[in-house]
C-alpha cells in the first residue's frame, strides 16, 4: 500500500519546489499494479499516439522542456503535460502513460523507495532556492535571530536545508520556521504581512517584478552549499519510467540529446525560449527573465551526478529520513545510459 508515502506528502505538502496544491489522499497501489503499469509503458504507452509525454510541475525544467516540445523535426516528439498534485503524478506513473517525469529528487527517491517504476535519468536543476527578506536590516543568517522565516512544505527539502544551515551557524534554536504554501507565502510577502521566506525560482521573479529592490536575497542556498561541500546543490531532475525505458532505449537517448541542446539554448534567454515557458509557468515574460539568472539549469547524467545526489540525500536522511523514503536509493534508482 502507498499510505506511508501519501501520509508523508500530506505533511510536507509536497514539495516546496512546485509551490502548488496540498497532496491529496489516493488509493493504494499493490506490487501487481506497479508491475502492470510497467508492462503498459513497455509496450508503447503515449508513444503509440505519435508523441512521448513528459509530465512536469511548474518548475524551471519547463523552460528547456517547452523548447524541446516545439521542435517539429525532432526524432522523438515530446508532449508536455502538467502535474499539479501528487495524486495526478501517482496516477500517471501507475498507469505508465508518462515515460518522462520531472520531479524534485526527494519526490523521486520516495516514490522509488515505495516500489514505483521511476529511475533518475538526469539532474537538471541545481540550487535555485533563496531565503529572501523585505527587511533592509537583514542581510545574513545571523540577522534572523528571534525572527520567523516561512518555508514551503513542512518536513520538505526547504525546511530541512534551512534547519541544516541554521544548525551550521548555531542558530537553529534562535530562528522560528513556519510552514506554508508557496502561493500563501508569496501573497503575504507582497502584502507586507511577513518579512522573511524561503522560496524557489522562478516564483521569486514574480515577486521581484512587484516589489523591486525591497525584496532582497539573504541566503543563496547554492552558494552556501558550494562553500561547505565545494559542489553544486542538486534539487530536481528528469525521471524515466523504467518499464518504458527497457524497450525504448533509442528514444531515451534521443530525448536526452534534445534536452541537453535545449538546456544550452535556455541560457541565451531569447523570446523563442522564454515566451512558451512563461505561459506554461503562469508568469509574465518579464518575471521569468528576472528569474533566469538566478536559476541554475545544467544537465548531468544520473550516474555522473550520483555522488552529489547522495551527499544531498544524506543530509535529508539525517534531518528527516521520511523525506526520501527512509534510506538511500539503491543502484537501480540511477538510470544507466
Structural write-up:
With 337 residues, this protein is α/β, with parallel strands linked by helices. The chain folds into 2 domains: 3-126 and 234-333, D-Maltodextrin-Binding Protein, domain 2; 129-229, 3-Layer(aba) Sandwich (D-Maltodextrin-Binding Protein, domain 2). 44% of the residues lie in helices and 19% in strands. The chain contains 14 helices and 11 strands. The strands form 3 sheets. Strands 2-1-3-10-4-11 form a 6-stranded mixed sheet, with helices on both faces. A 3-stranded antiparallel sheet has the order 8-5-9. It is globular and about 55 Å long. The model is unreliable at 1-48 (pLDDT under 50). Keywords: Lyase, Menaquinone biosynthesis.
Q: Stretches where pLDDT falls below 50 for ≥5 residues?
A: 1-48
The Rg value, from CA coordinates, equals: 19 Å
| Largest sheet geometry | 6 strands, mixed
What's the total helix number? 14
Structural class: alpha/beta
The top-level CATH class of the largest domain is Alpha Beta
Query: CATH-wise, what's the superfamily of the largest domain?
Result: Periplasmic binding protein-like II
Distance between the termini: 31 Å
Q: Quote the CATH topology of the largest domain.
A: D-Maltodextrin-Binding Protein, domain 2
Keywords:
337 residues; alpha/beta; D-Maltodextrin-Binding Protein, domain 2; 2 domains; six-stranded mixed beta sheet; three-stranded antiparallel beta sheet; 14 helices; 11 strands; 44% helix
